[in-house]
UniProtKB/TrEMBL annotation:
Lineage: Eukaryota, Fungi, Dikarya, Ascomycota, Pezizomycotina
A Pfam match: CorA-like
InterPro entries documented for this protein: CorA-like_dom
Keywords noted in UniProt: Membrane, Transmembrane, Transmembrane helix
Keyword Transmembrane attached: yes
Top-level division of the source organism's lineage: Eukaryota
Protein name, per record: CorA-like transporter domain-containing protein
Amino acid sequence: MQTLQLPTIFQRSWLHNESYPQNLFHKSTLTYPTALQAYKDRLDAAEPDLFVNDESNVELSFRDLHNASGKALEKYNIHTSMKLTEWLGLDTVADPADSTKLVVVARKPDPRCRFIYVYGEHSRAPLKTTRKMLARILTFHQVMPIYLDFISVFGSQSEPRDRRFSGFREQSTLSDPPRGLAIPSLGRSGRQYQLCYNLKSVALASKDTTNSRLNEWSIRPAVIHHQFDVVNGTSLWIVTKGNHDLQERYKELTGKDGRPEDRSFGSVEECLRSSLAAHLMFCHWSTEDWRWYILWLETVIEEQTSMVILGARGPGHAYRLSKPEHVQHLQLWEDKINEVIMILEANVDIMLAMCRFYDGLRKNKDVPQKLKDDCDLDITTFTAQVEDMVSDFKMQIARAKLQVKITSDRKEMVIQHLQSQATERMERLNQNMEREAIVMRIITIVTLVYLPATFVSTFFSTDIVKYQTQNGGPPHDGTFSKAAMYRWLQVTLPLTFATLIAAIVSLKLTERKRRKQQQPAGYKIWKRWTQNRTQDVELSKLSSHTSTDSIV
């Protein structure tokens, strides 16, 4: 079998593929050693959740269009690292000149277009590849390291992670002679550009036929990496997503039922047209269903808040009372709409950045003139179609911003209703208290009127003063008993004193409980921290004394 020689620097990079991205040989301001080490550290931290550990769970989909053997399409689902290396066409053998050294040789050049699909069961599941296998793919194609930041949003997670991250990155080595490494045996001229960006779409995950408010929508990210050689026309796509959706669309785009211009790879110009068609397909995917998601949000919010506007309030009207949880629900919906606005604006920025990049290619002196002349109209058409999608996005953004304002205004009305309900309760409480105060005043007056007479009657009913004799004789001027008076004081004064003490203790306990209830949140934590801090200081002093004694 014929073998193709590879540059030594590429061989060295391949032999150290497990250290990706530190093994990349193209150096720029974004790939200096400290930055590459930071990328690797983040990859090390994300590895347990981002990738599968067992190759039995691996599935990588390859579609090679117009390969060196003349086949229009060659596809394969790869499940092992050995099969991956075989598909890439690399062999590691002993150096004939020095058997202690290894050399890397190729068995076939790159196809005109290669599409690699890296996916998980969904966007919150691990990608169906091991880190080792992905590092081999990225090393073989020398993918810029920023791709790792884009795919970090995937992986095993209970809630969506870093869903607000968006970006568009490009790396160009178009100058002639090339600044990048040319590998003629693989069909790489060294004059290429790399693009990496992500887009987000929305889809109805589950539908409730009885209550539309219970429908579940899912915001789904996709990461697209693209390389294009402006001399040989070879292109690479690495698409990462949480199911087979975009893979099926790319099959339709480049399949037998697709447009001829979207699946033609005969010349460099045809390859560029096909790559523009793929970009359009990804952009169109990101525009789907946002209108219906926003409509669903509008409908749900209208159902929940319509009575805030239309419901009659006041005496004689039956209306639904506002509750604090209503404010929470409205805040939740408002957050969802704000998230929609942020995602749509990010999609717009990415699409416009892509238009600016391809528009800049037409003005770049390092791009072959024939490619610019033949594809000028194609790029113009591409940017016009992308701008149409951007216009649609901007209309949806304006619609969502209006809904945010409506939701915010109605949330304020609910808060005002809560305040008015509290005021009404206070008014009713004050009226009841006024009536009770009048009753208590009457009782107090009656008590004050009867209290002296009651006390005197009670006092004279004791044995302290007697106006009748024991044998039932006629009344006389009365007799006074000092012993009875003394006994009465012995019982009355201690009971009075005990009653006052109990009242004071009860008052103090009530006051202490009230102060505890008025303490700010976190007071107990702060107090415990200060106590622990004091103990630590005392222990440190004690240990310092002990160490001093031991030194002495």
